[in-house]
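Record type: ASSEMBLY
Status: queued
Input:
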Amino acid sequence: MKKSKSEELSEVVLESGIKVKPVFGPEDIKGLVYEKEIGQPGEYPFTRGIHPLMYRKRPWTMRQYSGFGTAKETNQRFKWLLKQGQTALNVAFDLPTQLGLDSDDPFAEEEVGRVGMAIDTLKDLEEAFADISIDKISTSLTINPVASVMLAMYLVVAEKQAIPWDQIRGTTQNDILKEYIGRGTWIFPVKPSIRLIGDMVDFCSMNVPKFNPFSVCGYHIRESGATPVQEIAYAFEIAITYIQEVLNRGLNIDDFAGRIAFNFDIYGNLWEQVAKFRAGRKLWAKIIKERFGAKNPRSMILRMIAGGGGGGLTIQQPENNIVRGAYYALISALSGTQTMALCSYDEAYTIPSKKAALISLRTMQILADEMGLKDTVDPLGGSYYIEWLTDKMEEKIVECMKEVEEMGGMIKAVETGYIQKEVSRQAYMREIKIQSGEITKIGVNKYVMEEEKADIELHPFNPEVAEEQKKKLKEIRALRNNSDVKETLFRLKKAAQTSENVMPFILNAVKSYATLGEITKVFKEVFGEFKEPVRL
Amino acid sequence: MNESLEKKRIRVVIAKPGLDGHDTGAKVVVHALKDAGMEVIYTGLHRTIDEIVKTALEEDVDVIGLSIYSGAHVPLSKKLMGRLKEEGITNKLVLVGGNIPQRDIKTLKDLGVSCVFPVGARLDEIVKFIKERV
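Status: finished
Output:
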């Protein structure tokens, strides 16, 4: 039998396991009913976007990840970025801060101020936001196990700037389940960690209504080796776990679902990513409406930050990453993201240099102002291929969610190490495919060049920051009212031991200038520490 | 098979020292070395240098591999080499991987690190390097 033309072509299979035909047409989407499965932008099921006019009304928020050294240095960088046209802040903390260790803790050695700014007490955060009116910007605080403490500090900074809490906009990343899967900044065991998230959601829904208390990160799960389908499926299962925790406290889904945010990865096949987000929006709306019975359409919308994808960048021919970044920005815009934080070309090495951060910001600005990405909503909507692929991605995500639910849900899947094992196995398979050339990476396994062995300009690390922080910490410990500190920490401990919401107690401890390390120690005493299940 | 001809399996500890939580690279290397027939112990995250040295001794490994993505590779490697020296351990191959800038590779080798495999290094090269030297 004679082979048809398409059979002679090499097969195209997406990472999510979907086979792609060379040509798509009307017959591929004839079962799709526009009103039901796609819908107008801003209307259920929000496939085309969460707002009726999207970027035509307001372009995406531009929020580059930044923070290093001391709070004072970071404050300078924040002001510079805002002056360059950035519209929000995305705060990087150093590892000791992310893990609730003070700068003078022996375990913090060599890490103070390295991958973000060092925060020990309220004093540091006050300095980080000095002369920045925090009611005019939204701020993303990239911190997880001790997000509750950082939120408390941020709220006290607001109080000191005489800004009411209901004017505060921002997000704490605060997605502990993904920390156990990838990224690795966990401290406490799973259940008390989720309780802290519940306390924050509960507290914010009453007191800080414009704040997103957590942002579920498919991003880091994908970076750790998950496929695009798993990225969305696992993120949704994590979000469902948090929702369940909050519902168990007696809140109504419509009291808080409108403040759930997501953080997704962008690297990979352009069409697969766009379809992933369109499918994700549709499926999330259905889950919130059908499974949780939400009535308010605002509860059903999937709001997200995208634009990162360090896993797609290469250390070889690093300037190529500038080009990859531009494509990532394009994918994010075509996917209808609310906020973009573009990975910088030096991300394969370290946190962004000033030059790299500026190039990323200009990349987004060029896209928004020169290329027509704001002109019309969901410009790929209606494409035979994209609509077909959106449908297929949704099916796959649903299947993958079922697997997690059948094994008892996300908490169990993480405690036993199942998810960690699954994603690390896939990271290995992917690496093998890159090394064999099955997955093409330009500069790595194709168009490889003899490179001059020189590094690009990198963000410099200042080892003196640690000494500066230690000195400052000593001064604060001497100046503060130490019996107040003791008292607030004692009350916090009592609250942590019961089911009382800990947020008001953390706020009092922070106000007395208790250190992040002292507050974390209280939680460690009550909750214990996570034991990592090492399964490979 | 003749017992005397059977070569002892190479034993490796892959360790994550310090606070850095990026463990994908470490786990990929663990898989690759296992597939190459080696016995591999993975420490998990947030280990101190003392803990790593203790594991290396208890498990009687031939190779210690550190994986570091935070930028603290020079001080952490220095600490490890210092501890090994104190313990009088000279027979172990020390490898460092992670996002190591080119300019730091010589510094690490001067400290006594046998080889550095930065992000993007080929897995078969890591395997080959170990097999040739153990």
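Annotation: The mean pLDDT of chain A is 94.
Annotation: Chain A has one domain: 19-404.
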